[in-house]
Design goal:
Chain A: This is Uroplakin 3b. Chain A: One of its GO terms (cellular component) is membrane. Chain A: InterPro entries: Uroplakin-2, Uroplakin-3. Chain A: Keywords: Membrane, Signal, Transmembrane, Transmembrane helix. Chain A: Pfam families: Uroplakin_II. The complex is a heterodimer of chains A (about 300) and B (about 220). Chain A has about 300 residues and is an alpha+beta fold. In chain A, the strands form three sheets. In chain A, strands 1-7-6-3-4 form a five-stranded mixed beta sheet. The longest helix of chain A has about 35 residues. Chain B has nine helices and no strands. In chain B, helix 1 runs antiparallel to helix 3 and helix 1 runs antiparallel to helix 9. Chain B starts with a helix and ends with a helix. Classes of the chains: A alpha+beta (about 300), B mainly alpha (about 220). At the A-B interface, helix 5 of A face helix 4, helix 5, helix 6 and helix 9 of B.
Chain lengths: ~300, ~220
């Protein structure tokens, strides 16, 4: 009887609810990887040094398991309400976690044994990719996160024997996943006319126009100016004050009259062409007029 | 006359340099032509081809100009001036073409270009993640971006496919193709358009001097 009473008394003692320890850890993205966030996966840093300071655990580091809870919107509060349950691992299987009329909005997936993540990592660059299993269908698979959602994450320390949660980290910040954009919005990258192009075009056009102008002016000055005065029978310009239409140079052996080109237009006198042809001809170069160049005949 | 001869000598050298530079662009060491060809905006190469001919023509005509200045004959100088002016017009066309082409590179096509250029995406590999594409429809579950984004060994195999999939920066090309191609295109544009422009400016002043010399002849 007394034994029964004692047993009863012990039974009636409120069994202290196994309180889940919250460690001061917060899951974070692995910033060094380029694919840290995609539309349905996230790459997190590994849960090192999070659960190593706990004592009085019913499992050792070889048997304690680390699990991950990705949760969206209401899933955070739903999970927190249910986390003490002994069936927590299968309460919200992955295939139905985000579907249906009132989805649980969270699921659990195993990350590894606690001994896999010692405090001091043997090799750098550890990561855990949430969503690595893709579109899977088992209860605790590491499946895709809902596209475009903003999930938060929490690591759990789970007793492999009882399948109950022993400890947990804090909720991470919500990480916004990408939503696929239409590639048409990439834009044509047409930033408008660059300054360099404007400078080059205007300067070159102006230069070409100026050159053309000057070329025409020079041609007009030189060629047209020369044409009215005759075509090259005399080298150089006409001496304007030398108005004798025709004259003889007396110091020659066989003098022939020289027609002054200034009077060529009037043609009222015989010219070189109409005279009987003599053998010796001469021309006066105004520049070197004091010397006569004779042609060899 | 000495000034004209010296300027012509300098312009001949500059024309030859333009000729060589334009050949360098036309040879296309950076293999830019396929991409520009796809987008239909390959005027930079048209500009380069024109510059090849004008550069060589400048060289020959300037040598002729030295001869014409030496001979002090009006007809020769006139021929020289007219030929130089025609070449000037063509070189203007080349510079302007090269300069305007630069503004037209299309970003959209670069997302889809997976060629030998060592780049990934338009601005960065994240373009493959953020934007929808045929690639994403087909392979989006396994690969965030095509394996062309991954660094390869000399045997053409991917150096580290796991690292590339998760995005380790040491195993993949992180520079966007737009940035890469834009920088290469800038190099070509600087060559053809800006150097051509500086040659044009020099030739412009040289032709002015030559015209003055021409009026003094005879």
């Amino acid at each position: 009887m007394e034994v029964y009473l004692v047993l009863c008394f012990i039974c009636m003692l409120p069994i202290p609810a196994k309180s889940i320890t919250t460690v001061d850890c917060k899951p974070a993205i692995n910033e060094s990887l380029a694919a840290k966030i995609t539309i349905n996966t996230v790459i997190l840093q590994q849960p090192r040094c999070c659960f190593d300071n706990l004592t009085n655990l019913p499992c050792t580091s070889n048997t304690c398991e680390i699990w991950l809870v990705p949760a969206v919107d209401t899933g955070l509060s739903t999970f927190d309400a249910n986390k003490a349950s002994s069936a927590i691992l299968s309460l919200s299987p992955y295939p139905t976690a985000f579907t249906g009329s009132s989805p649980a909005n969270y699921f659990l997936t195993k990350v590894g044994l606690q001994s896999d993540f010692p405090c001091v990592s043997p090799s750098p660059g550890g990561y855990f990719r949430v969503g690595a299993d893709g579109a899977c269908s088992t209860t605790n698979c590491n499946g895709f996160l809902p596209q475009g959602s903003s999930p938060s994450f929490k690591y759990l320390l789970v007793d492999s024997v009882n399948k109950t949660v022993l400890a947990e980290t804090k909720w991470s910040d919500s990480i916004a996943l990408y939503t696929l954009k239409d590639p048409g919005t990439l834009g044509d990258g047409f930033a408008g006319r660059s300054g360099a192009m404007v400078v080059i075009t205007t300067l070159l056009s102006v230069a070409a126009a100026v050159l053309l102008l000057f070329l025409i002016v020079v041609l007009a000055l030189c060629c047209c100016g020369g044409k009215s005065k005759g075509s090259g029978s005399v080298v150089g310009s006409v001496m304007g004050s030398f108005r004798i239409p025709r004259y003889d140079t007396h110091h020659l052996k066989d003098p022939a009259p020289y027609d002054n080109p200034a009077y060529e237009k009037e043609r009222k006198y015989t010219t070189q062409d109409t005279l009987p042809k003599t053998k010796a001809t001469s021309a006066v170069n105004p520049v070197t007029q004091d010397t006569i160049k004779l042609q060899k005949i | 006359m000495i000034i004209v001869i010296l300027c012509n000598a300098f312009a001949a050298a500059a024309g030859l340099a333009l000729f060589a530079l334009a050949i360098w662009v036309a040879v296309d060491g950076y293999k830019l032509y396929p991409i520009s060809g796809v987008s239909g905006k390959d005027d930079i190469f048209a500009g380069a081809w024109i510059a090849i001919f004008t550069g060589f023509a400048y060289f020959c005509t300037c040598i002729f100009g030295i001869y014409a200045a030496r001979k002090q004959r009006r007809s020769l100088m006139l021929a020289y001036l007219i030929i130089m002016f025609i070449i000037f017009i063509f070189e203007c066309a080349s510079c302007i073409t090269a300069a305007t082409n630069r503004d037209y590179v299309s970003r959209l096509l670069l997302l889809l270009s997976c060629l030998q250029v060592e780049c990934c995406g338009t601005d960065s590999p994240l373009d493959w993640v953020e934007y929808n594409s045929t690639f994403r429809q087909l392979y989006g579950t396994t690969y965030p971006w095509p394996l062309n984004c991954c660094k390869r060994l000399s045997s053409f195999e991917v150096a580290d496919s796991q690292g590339c999939i998760i995005g380790q920066t040491s195993t993949m090309f992180t520079q966007g193709c737009f940035t890469h191609i834009e920088s290469v295109l800038s190099r070509y544009t600087w060559a053809v358009s800006w150097y051509g422009f500086s040659v044009q400016m020099f030739v412009f002043f040289m032709l002015l001097i030559a015209m003055v010399y021409f009026t003094q002849l005879g």
